[in-house]
Write a structure and sequence with these properties.
- The chain is mainly α.
- Helix content is 59%, strand content 4%.
- It is built from 16 helices and four strands.
- A two-stranded antiparallel ribbon has the order 1-2. A two-stranded antiparallel sheet has the order 3-4.
- A hairpin with a 2-residue loop joins strand 1 and strand 2.
- Helix 6 runs parallel beside helix 12, helix 7 runs antiparallel to helix 10 and helix 11 packs antiparallel against helix 12.
Length: 430
């Protein structure tokens, strides 16, 4: 039993059912390959290198149904699915215009171009979900601008902060990811170079200026025109690897914070609708955060494979190009699913200010020891002030009962520094 995307996602609940699943499945990839082939004939027709009727015939045939399973099996013979696809598409076009299918191109031209189409089509929904996330986080940051909570460093209480500042920080990372993904999506280029990146075949077929064909080709596809054929100049793949890995880490930061803060013994936040347990009826697990964190842990290794493939020999490589296909698709799927899940997480996140306030008092005033050190130093001297606070902390005594601190403000909500102003500044970013 198969799904329209070519993969059920049985072991991948992080991206199953997402827009990225549909945009990256085998049938979606096949559609991108066919779109790339049809656009090539149309571009040649636009420049007078093929009859208009050929462009129409190839485009119509490319809109038909092709057997992805058969193509996958036959791809082994030549190492990529373009070779059998060209044979099937040529047959579907017919004898009259079949010779105009794939004319002058090489398999990598079509495969790389289809990959850029798949990436562009996947990143659209990703950007939409990142937009949903930043809007939800902006509401949380504004609504909890002055909600004090413990700041934690190296897992321990440090000084007070606010949940508004924490949410503003999450949003800043999401906006950083959005900007990087948007820039890369807008830069994705078509690929067209022919057998060894010289465009020679197009000249042999009558093009007086073959260098103009890649621009016409890109225009047909809605991609950027390449400055050069990039068969072994893999900047577009490196850029995708970087922006996707960064996005995974940015969303992962939100997830791991929620995982920590939603622990039973902390419970300062909770997912809006947690997941159940097969064995423990009482549990409401932070499932979305779990899946996002999983994606963040996998993404760097996938990106590393793509960076490793940049060392591609000669004018067309053996193995380096092929090594990109699966990890790039996995990255697109992971980030597509993680972006969806983070949007839902942020929109449904429940905040518990009462728990935050209770935890501020767990150390009986020690959470403001930094401020106390500064205030006592002019009176007792810096060394003595530190000694006093260290001793009180070791004894576990509430600071409110210490005679030396009788006139000192111990309220942790009064020591959040510039958290409010920093939150306001962060929310000015659009």
């Amino acid at each position: 039993m198969t799904s329209p995307s070519g993969d059920t996602g049985l072991l991948a609940p992080g991206w199953a059912g997402s827009a990225a699943a549909a945009a990256t499945g085998d049938h979606a990839y096949l559609r991108a390959l066919l779109d790339a082939e049809a656009a090539l004939t149309r571009a040649q027709a636009a420049l007078g290198l093929a009859p208009a009727e050929a462009a129409t015939a190839v485009t119509e045939a490319a809109g038909g149904t092709f057997d992805a399973v058969s193509l996958a099996g036959r791809a082994r013979a030549g190492g990529n699915p373009v070779i059998p696809l060209v044979a099937d598409l040529t047959k579907a076009v017919g004898d009259t215009y079949g010779p105009y299918v794939h004319r002058g191109a090489t398999s990598q031209d079509i495969m790389d171009t289809a990959t850029m189409l798949v990436a562009a089509r996947t990143l659209g929904p990703v950007l939409a979900d990142l937009g949903r996330t930043e809007q939800a986080l902006a509401r949380l940051a504004a609504g909890h601008r002055d909600t004090a909570m413990p700041g934690r460093t190296l897992t321990q209480h440090a000084v007070p902060t606010t949940f508004g500042l924490k949410a503003a920080g999450w949003r800043s990372l999401v906006l950083d990811a959005r900007d990087r993904v948007k820039a890369v999506r807008e830069s994705l280029p078509a690929q067209l170079g022919g057998a060894a990146g010289t465009l020679a075949a197009f000249g042999a077929y009558g093009a007086s200026d073959p260098a103009g064909l890649p621009e016409a080709y890109a225009r047909e596809l809605g991609l950027r025109a390449p400055d050069l054929p990039w068969h072994t100049l893999r900047t577009p793949i490196g850029d995708l690897a970087g922006c996707l890995a960064f996005a995974a880490g940015a969303l992962g930061k939100v997830a791991v914070d929620v995982l920590t803060l939603s622990r039973t013994e902390i419970a300062e936040v909770a997912e809006g609708s947690g997941g159940g347990s097969s064995a423990m009826p009482h549990k409401s697990n932070p499932v979305r955060s779990t899946l996002i964190a999983s994606a963040a842990r996998r993404a760097p290794q996938l990106a590393a494979t793509l960076y490793g493939a940049m060392a591609a020999e000669d004018e067309r490589p053996a193995g380096a190009w092929h090594a990109e296909w699966e990890p790039l698709r996995d990255l697109l799927r992971l980030i597509g699913g993680a972006a969806r899940d983070t949007a839902e997480l942020a929109e449904g996140l429940r905040i518990r200010p009462e728990a935050m306030r209770e935890h501020l008092d767990l150390t009986h005033g020690l959470i403001v020891s930094e401020r106390l050190s500064a205030e006592l130093a002019p009176v007792l001297g810096r060394a003595r002030a530190k000694e006093l606070l260290t001793r009180l902390a070791a004894e576990g005594r509430p600071l409110a009962g210490a005679p030396e601190l009788a006139d000192v403000d111990l309220d942790p909500t009064h020591y959040t520094g510039s958290a409010g102003a920093l939150t306001d500044r962060a929310l000015e970013r659009r």
